[in-house]
Amino acid sequence: MMNSETKKKVEARLKRVAGQVAGVQRMVDSDRYCVDVLMQISAARAALAKVSKMLLESHIQTCVSAAFKSEDEDDRSAKIQELVRVFEKNCSC
């Protein structure tokens, strides 16, 4: 579970992303220049990537760390598999 400071930061960034996405919708609605729209989409993606990084870091520092400190081998294995799935979905590796 993420701490309250991280949660506040994530929530603030997500609100900004929501504003960016709404802005993209308004740009499309008003027939703005395609490259301008693409640039805003790129900015929204970058902002979401930052949120993803923050969440991953929090997860590693809390849930994964706790699993590796425990005696539960199954929990450790599960956390490793979770991380592998996250990296498969979020990395272009």
In short:
By secondary structure, the protein is mainly alpha-helical. It contains three helices and no strands.
General description of the model:
- There is one protein chain.
- This protein has 93 residues and is mostly helical.
- It has one domain: Metal-sensitive repressor, helix protomer (Methane Monooxygenase Hydroxylase, Chain G, domain 1), CATH 1.20.58.
- It has three helices and no strands.
- Helix 1 runs antiparallel to helix 2 (34-69) and helix 2 (34-69) runs antiparallel to helix 3.
- The longest helix is centred in the middle third of the chain and has 36 residues, at 34-69.
- The chain is elongated.
- The relative contact order is 0.11.
- The model has no long low-confidence stretch (mean pLDDT 93).
Secondary structure elements and pairings:
Layout lengths: L3 H26 L4 H36 L3 H18 L3
Low-pLDDT segments, ≥5 res: none
Percent in helix: over 70%
The helix/strand order is HHH
Looking at CATH, the homologous superfamily is Metal-sensitive repressor, helix protomer
Question: What is the distance, rounded to the nearest whole angstrom, between the alpha carbons of the first and last residues?
Answer: 27 Å
- Count of β-strands: 0
User: Which structural category fits the helices and strands?
Assistant: mainly alpha
**What composes the largest sheet?**
none
Structural key phrases:
single chain, 93 residues, mainly alpha, Methane Monooxygenase Hydroxylase, Chain G, domain 1, 0% strand
